[in-house]
């Protein structure tokens, strides 16, 4: 294949990117995005603050812009994200207890129902585990409604859109020996054993020198897949440049390709200048839209 989507397609996988609605009018951006990628994640437009800015008043304008662009260009959509401690609307941030639980479940139900049939995979719950050595849940207003909030969100999402794949998504879960990885693994194993509807696990894969691509990434992906879920790289970016960056990207692709149930890779933006990172050059295209060494190594590895 001569594009990322074509090359990934040779092994039945997808290659995706995060899309920002306000960049779609930039033709350099949309030309690259349309040519290279066949899976789209809204970078911010489907988050709780964007889709429910006031309680029970839903707002889908920017999310629809992305979904319509994707669908009219033959691409699929990863929905991101139904429930998360971050980027909550103001009204939700100070809620607690039963009213917060019900508001969260209502949000999951409303948004997943609105997009029923149009979403390949939902990130149902994002970033619910703590960093560090505990392996436990992250403290948040949602977590304080009870440890079962995650499974409640998954059940609500399944009921609202039975055709969508349902993912748990997190970061720093790439290294098999990290406590956070083990914590998520144990939750997924528990969900599978009790019939909680979960289909996949997303690995954000935001890497930098302090958090490099682990050499055991394939082990992590394989162990999760062995629980009976698909795995996906969902927000890949790697700080750095040149051949060192290219090699690390290659390692991520290699790890995914070595696991049959690793079904796709998404990078978190198109050009370096589109990245959420304040500085640095973590993506596959430079600020002018030129292919970087990292692009070539990914394409050749796929
Ligand atoms: C980031 C976006 O890229 C930024 O534009 C926004 O300001 C903050 O969120 N993990 C996630 C993504 O799941 O939603 C985050 O996206 C990056 C970290």
TrEMBL record:
<keyword id="KW-0378">Hydrolase</keyword>
<keyword id="KW-0119">Carbohydrate metabolism</keyword>
<comment type="similarity">
    <text>Belongs to the glycosyl hydrolase 10 (cellulase F) family.</text>
</comment>
<dbReference type="GO" id="GO:0031176">
    <property type="term" value="F:endo-1,4-beta-xylanase activity"/>
</dbReference>
<keyword id="KW-0732">Signal</keyword>
<keyword id="KW-0326">Glycosidase</keyword>
<protein>
    <recommendedName>
        <fullName>Beta-xylanase</fullName>
        <ecNumber>3.2.1.8</ecNumber>
    </recommendedName>
</protein>
<feature type="domain" description="GH10">
    <location>
        <begin position="1"/>
        <end position="301"/>
    </location>
</feature>
<feature type="active site" description="Nucleophile">
    <location>
        <position position="235"/>
    </location>
</feature>
<keyword id="KW-0858">Xylan degradation</keyword>
<keyword id="KW-0624">Polysaccharide degradation</keyword>
């Amino acid at each position: 294949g001569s594009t990322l989507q074509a090359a990934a397609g040779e092994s039945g996988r997808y290659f995706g990117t995060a899309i920002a609605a306000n960049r779609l009018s930039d033709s350099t951006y949309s030309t690259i995005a349309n040519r290279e990628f066949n899976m789209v994640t809204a970078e911010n437009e489907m988050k709780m603050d964007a889709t429910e800015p006031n309680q029970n008043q839903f707002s889908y304008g920017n999310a629809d812009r992305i979904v319509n662009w994707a669908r009219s260009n033959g691409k699929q959509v990863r929905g991101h994200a139904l429930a998360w401690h971050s980027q909550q609307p103001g009204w939700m941030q100070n809620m607690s207890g039963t009213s917060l639980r019900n508001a969260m479940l209502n949000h999951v139900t409303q948004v997943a129902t609105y997009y029923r049939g149009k979403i390949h995979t939902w990130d149902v719950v994002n970033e619910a585990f703590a960093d560090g050595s505990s392996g436990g849940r992250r403290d948040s207003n949602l977590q304080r409604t009870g440890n079962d909030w995650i499974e409640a969100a998954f059940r609500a999402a399944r009921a609202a859109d039975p055709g969508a794949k349902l993912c748990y998504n997190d970061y720093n879960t790439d290294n098999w020996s990290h406590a956070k990885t083990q914590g998520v693994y144990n939750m997924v194993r528990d969900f599978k054993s009790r019939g909680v509807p979960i289909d996949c696990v997303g690995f954000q894969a935001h890497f930098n020198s302090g958090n490099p691509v682990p050499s055991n990434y394939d082990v992590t992906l394989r162990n999760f897949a062995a629980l009976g879920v698909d795995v996906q790289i969902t927000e890949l970016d790697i700080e750095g440049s040149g051949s060192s960056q290219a090699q690390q990207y290659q390692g991520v692709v290699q790890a995914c390709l070595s696991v049959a149930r690793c079904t796709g890779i998404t990078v978190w933006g198109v050009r370096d200048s589109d990245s959420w990172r304040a500085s640095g050059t973590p993506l596959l295209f430079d600020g002018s839209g030129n292919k970087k060494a990292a692009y070539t190594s990914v394409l050749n590895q796929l």
